[in-house]
Amino acid sequence: xxxxxxxxxxxxxxxxxxxxxxxxxxxxxxxxxxxxxxxxxxxxxxxxxxxxxxxxxxxxxxxxxxxxxxxxxxxxxxxxxxxxxxxxxxxxxxxxxxxxxxxxxxxxxxxxxxxxxxxxxxxxxxxxxxxxxxxxxxxxxxxxxxxxxxxxxxxxxxxxxxxxxxxxxxxxxxxxxxxxxxxxxxxxxxxxxxxxxxxxxxxxxxxxxxxx
Length: 212
Prior knowledge:
Elements: H1 2-44, E1 47-53, E2 70-76, H2 83-95, E3 100-101, E4 114-120, H3 128-135, E5 142-158, E6 161-176, H4 181-186, H5 191-203, E7 210-211
Helix pairs in contact: 1-3, 2-5
């Protein structure tokens, strides 16, 4: 009987040791996973601003606009179904609602009044200095500039020839730090799309024909 009780005590101790070991292991894994999650969150978050070259005044509405009867729309993107491409197309229809989309009928002989060509480029992932911010859990700040993320090329045609054309290049600058996480969570504005709308309005201001 004593041997049986002693054997049960040994089994209980072994089970307790295993449970405690699993608990510590789970705790270590939880801490490690939490560290990785926080590092990724800091790495992906930050305060990002976009700029255009040439500069666009987003808050000025043109007094007179060009009359656009038709337009063609083309986007080159590394992604098959570009979300930005769809949003920019929808924004185009709102800005020139009376214009017909000539690109939907490529066999048509009509010469579009406006040609729109958008180039979207990959950001290339995080910058090298961003990893230092992530590994330090956001204590070490970092800046990262990504030039030419987007290019908006507009061509205005009149009398079946080019009247004028212009290209807007969009770049971004990101600042990453622990204090920027709340701003990243609430910053849901699509700034590149806003710049596209402003660029199209800027280009459609009535002016003289010039190919520059």
